[in-house]
Amino acid sequence: MRFPGPTHLVILVEAHPRSAWLLGAVQRRLREELAKLRVEINEEKSRVVDLKEGESFTFLGFEYRYLPGRSGKMRVKFVPKLKKRTALFARLREAIRRKESQPVREVIAEINPVLRGWVNYFRIGNSSHCFAMVKRWVERKIRRHMLRARQRPGMGWKRWSTRWIHGTLRLFDDYRLRRPTLRKAVAAPSAT
Fold first, then answer.
1. Is the pTM here over 0.85, yes or no?
2. Looking at the structure, do residues 132 and 147 belong to the same domain, yes or no?
C-alpha cells in the first residue's frame, strides 16, 4: 500500500513512573503494525518528547506544551504555532494593502473570511491569548485604514468605538473558544 504523502502520528503516553514500560511497548507494537502495512518510519523525523521536561512538539498547526493552568495544576496546553500566526498576519497585511484605496467595508469583506476560517480552525485549543492579539491587531489596522482615508494621524479611539467597528462595519468578532463537551452515556430503559 502506498500513501499519497507523509503521514504524521502522535502517541501520548502517561508519564507516571509505573508506566515507564509502556513507552517501549508502544514503540514495538507500532513498528509491528506498520510493518504489516509495509509502511516505514522515518527515523530522522521520529522522536520522543518529554513534555514534563519542558520540551514541546507541533502537530496539525498547534504547538503542545506542559504548562500550569489557571488553578496552578500542570496540564498540556496547545496553541497555534508561531509560524501559523505569522502566516495569518502576512495574509491579512497583504489583503489590507491590496485594498488600500478602497472603502473600509471592502477591506473588511476581504479579511473577514480569512479571519473566520483561521479562528474556526484554531478555536479548540488554548488560543484565547493569541485570539486577543489577533483581534487587537486587526482592529488597529482597520482604524488606521479609516484615518488614512481622511488623511488624519492616530487610531481614532475617541472617534469610533470597538462596538461600532464590529457591530456597524461588521468586522469579524467571534473569537470565542469552543470546548468539546463530553457526554455521559445514558443507559436505555429496560423493557419489563
1. no
2. yes
